[in-house]
Protein: Enoyl-CoA hydratase
Amino acid sequence: MSGSAIDLPPSYEALELTHIKLSHHPLGTPAVTPVIIITLNRPEKNNAFTPQMADSLTRAFNLFHIDPRVKAVVLTGTGKMFCAGSDLEIGFGDGGGKAVDFRDIGGRVALAMHRCHKPTIVALQGSAVGVGMTMTLPAAIRICHEKSKYGFVFTRRGLTIESCASYFLPRLVGYSKAMHLITTGGVYPPQSKYFGDLFTEVLPDATAVMPRALELAEDIAENTSPLASSMSRALMWEGANSPEEAHLLESRVFHHMVGQRDYKEGVGSFLEKRKPKFECDPREDCSPNFPWWTEANTLLESRVSKNSKL
Structure:
């Protein structure tokens, strides 16, 4: 994101975004709620992914990232299918132009979700393939329906994986399983051994997937520190290269956390047997060494306008 100021909406339900719908939880609550629901909303196309959907999702996650009112996000789909992958009737262009100037739209969504301080729970109430799967990989939790089918079908469409899947998928399921999923391009039930623990919960009833995701989101929003959660996920995704380096990094971040008011609130609420009220903002109160890794610049290079007089 750029450093320019962004106006936060008084209500996410009033925010109109193409091909997705934002909802408060409970639905219809006038003020912004700690749990926000994103619903892929192209049921007539099985929620097939479009550039407009990518723009909408990226904007939504960028807003949640800076909004202290939001504590957790639930992503789901309208209808019987979570996402049928990219809308192939729209396609991806003709391959013209320079590769250095191209950014895959699924990758923009994946990075926005990954960089968002607020955890995402994906409620896959139906089947998902292609980018419908890869865009969920940066999420903290994935819950699905046992009778639905899921797959990374790129090689069957003459395409390579995208949405940063080459980074996330092997780390989530292991290289051997990831190689099988990508090489075959097959579609499998969620209990397949090839998925490993990608889906943390597989439910027999499709209608139970969303309520379970909301139950988890409520628990996270009410009982965990957004700052501690964000820093802990970053330690795992952007961790050290050895146990010794991990020890040094974790010690530095832990030392910072002990000085924060969320630590005092967490201990106090536990000893006093009451609900915690965490107030630290992950963007304002993060560890001084955050980010402790070097972030690659994914922005396109600026060019001199042809109309410029040099």
About this structure: The domain at 20-221 is CATH 3.90.226.10 (2-enoyl-CoA Hydratase; Chain A, domain 1). Strands lie at 20-24, 35-40, 72-77, 81-83, 120-124, 127-129, 141-145, 150-151, 187-188, 201-203.
